[in-house]
Design brief:
Strand 2 and strand 3 form a beta hairpin. The protein has 14 helices and 18 strands. Helix 9 runs parallel beside helix 11. By secondary structure, the protein is an alpha/beta fold. The longest helix is centred in the last third of the chain and has 27 residues. The strands form 5 sheets. Strands 2-3-17-7-16-15-1-12-9 form a 9-stranded mixed beta sheet, with helices on one face. Strands 4-5-6 form a 3-stranded antiparallel beta sheet.
């Protein structure tokens, strides 16, 4: 997509314009900076999802004693507490998975972090893309349900995330059905849905990077070519070509939609550019094929670079990233990532503890080397009264909980407060500690007897309510008739190992998760 480039001289050409030294917020007292800037900092969201899950609770979470405060919930008593860490050697450690070099995972960043435990999908999910609300093709055979609704990220992108039309509505990296969009937003779900567009990394970079100063200092051409199209459109409608009266209703509707899209493109080309954009340089040589843009260690930092460019140029405020790489070479002799994730949950493998250790190693490597690299970069950019991270919600969820193909106890790890909407530095445990553990499927006798085993929690989709509320998305934009939760009407299979009260869990999704949002 070609982006109009505005040089400094372009901004000085307005006839009769008064030129004066602007207010300089950095010279004002800290508490007055936001008021001087006048416009609130943009809010953003980044979602990472990793395949399979399979991380046992003691490796994924801090000890439950850290969450010692009782927190009321409509379903049962839940718990929370301040999130703390320790330093071991050169690492800051929260759990076996959540550890990174202490100069990357700093104490300050722990204070901007949340851990959510005890979030359940109240039906069998199998191979799933449910983190954002796509419940289609969840079974091993891929034929249980079809995609039937727009996912939460797409709801956010078309409602409150942007004041106008962005250069790129969202950055989608290898999601393969994680993100689902409306085919015709004006028609709503009745118009059908489809997997969100996936293109190569180079195409995403080209659409979000803006060269704010042309290298030769030249001025862009002033005529707007889209105006000529609108002139022809108006002449056609008025009958100047003798055809306006013959336009059928469907053709007229199709033409109007086309012109609406052109108008969106014109708005995007003339939209403002983020103040940090001038710090970037153009780049080439990124993968051009969507499949080659899958999240591998070789591409990880480049994907972070693209996300940063979208945010720094304010050309996009949303990214969805699917991580399907094991992040360790040690799994190859055991059949690779897929086989290790499944066999770590099986008594038949004979060595579940060893295989589970490989899963922990891979998730820990990704957290330290890729996820935290983006988090720390966002936190270095001043914005408003804080940093770019403070105005962003970055969260990581997994396809499954401690056992692959099962949706109980899916961990959610967050950083940032979405512009001050979230309380941070907290560990939330939404499980019901007063009931017997769910029957574990993995091998260790110590794991079977652990007090931190799988217990029933609250609905994962209450997390969806929470972050959509944080971004001020109205309920009418996503709630289906008779449904409080961000779900379709998916039944609980009678053979499933835990029979949830789906009605009560769905009703609880009318409110956000307790303790997370600031009042």
């Amino acid at each position: 997509m070609t982006v109009r480039k505005f040089g400094r001289r372009w901004m000085l050409m307005g006839g009769g314009a008064a030129i004066a030294i602007p207010a300089l917020p950095s010279l004002l007292p800290r508490g007055h900076r936001a008021a001087a800037q006048g416009i609130p900092a943009p809010r953003r969201m980044v979602v990472f999802t990793t395949e399979h899950g399979g991380i046992w609770a003691p490796s994924m979470y801090p000890d439950q004693s850290m969450a010692s405060e009782t927190v009321p919930h409509p379903l049962h008593t839940t718990h929370a507490g301040p999130l703390t860490s320790r330093v071991e050697g050169g690492d800051r450690v929260i759990s076996d998975v959540l550890r990174a070099p202490s100069d990357v995972l700093t104490e300050s960043l722990v204070g901007k972090m949340n851990i959510l435990r005890g979030l359940d999908v109240p039906f069998h999910s199998g191979h799933a893309r449910h983190l954002l609300g796509n419940y289609g093709r969840m079974s091993n055979d891929g034929d249980e349900f079809e995609e039937n609704r727009e996912t939460a990220d797409q709801v956010l992108a078309r409602t409150t995330l942007y004041a106008g039309t962005p250069r790129r509505r969202f950055m989608n990296f290898g999601s393969r059905g994680l993100s689902i969009e409306l085919i015709d937003p004006s028609a709503g779900p009745a118009g059908g849905v489809r997997p969100a567009e996936e293109v190569g990394m180079q195409a995403i970079w080209n659409s979000v990077y803006v060269d704010v100063e042309p290298p030769d200092g030249s001025e862009p051409e002033r005529p707007d070519p889209i105006n000529a199209v609108f002139d022809s459109y108006q002449r056609l409608q008025s009958g100047a070509f003798g055809a306006g009266a013959r336009l059928g209703a469907q053709d007229r509707q199709r033409l109007n939609r086309y012109m609406d899209r052109l108008n969106d493109i014109r708005a995007a080309l003339s939209s403002s550019v983020g103040v940090q954009c001038s710090e970037l340089s153009d780049r080439s040589g990124l993968p051009r094929d969507a499949y080659a843009s899958m999240y591998t260690p070789d591409n990880a930092i480049a994907i972070n670079d693209i996300i940063m460019a979208g945010f720094m140029c304010d050309s996009s405020r949303l990214a969805v990233v699917r991580v399907d790489n094991p992040w360790t070479d040690a799994m190859e002799s055991d059949g690779g990532y897929h086989e290790v994730a499944h066999n770590a949950a099986s008594l038949e493998s004979g060595t579940p503890e060893r295989l589970h250790g490989l899963l922990v190693e891979g998730k820990r490597n990704w957290f330290a080397q890729a996820f935290m690299q983006l988090i720390s970069r966002l936190d270095t950019i001043p914005e408003g009264e804080g940093t770019m991270l403070d105005n962003t919600l970055v969260w990581w969820g997994q396809e499954a909980g401690p056992v692959t193909h099962h949706g109980d106890n899916i961990p959610i790890i967050t950083f940032g407060s979405a512009g001050g909407r979230f309380n941070t530095g907290r560990y939330f445990d939404f499980r019901n500690r007063d009931v017997d553990p769910l029957v574990p499927m993995y091998a260790s006798e110590a794991e079977r007897n652990s007090n931190q085993q799988r217990r029933v929690g609250v609905s994962l989709f209450q997390w969806t309510t929470t972050y959509l509320d944080a971004f001020d998305v109205p309920r009418r934009a996503w709630q289906l008739p008779g449904r409080s939760a961000f779900t379709g009407t998916i039944p609980l299979q009678p053979w499933y190992y835990y029979q949830y009260d789906q009605g009560a869990m769905d009703r609880s999704c009318e409110s956000p998760l307790p303790g997370l949002l600031r009042s």
